[in-house]
Amino acid sequence: xxxxxxxxxxxxxxxxxxxxxxxxxxxxxxxxxxxxxxxxxxxxxxxxxxxxxxxxxxxxxxxxxxxxxxxxxxxxxxxxxxxxxxxxxxxxxxxxxxxxxxxxxxxxxxxxxxxxxxxxxxxxxxxxxxxxxxxxxxxxx
Length: 141
Prior knowledge:
By secondary structure, the chain is mainly alpha-helical.
């Protein structure tokens, strides 16, 4: 499994929103503010936020004091939720996500290893919440 730039940036941006939630009762934060604070391109962040909004991880508020905020508490959003939304899967091998992708899958001994690894990775990512990540986060300078 290799988390793409999109996945890493999504987690950084959401960590920023989680910090805002924990400090300011979930007030909207502008993309520009997150972009500057986390050193992420505005345009790239907008694309990521479209995906996160479709996945009901964030919501948007229009207007002068608008921006984005978490759709639910950071303790209720896992790293798995985020990566599943932006990466379209977090498995170590494609055959774990879809057995039809590999002709050898029914007789492959190594597939069992990938399935086991997938369970460990998924379990860890599901139990790791944005609230925990936010507590340990230091923004880019």
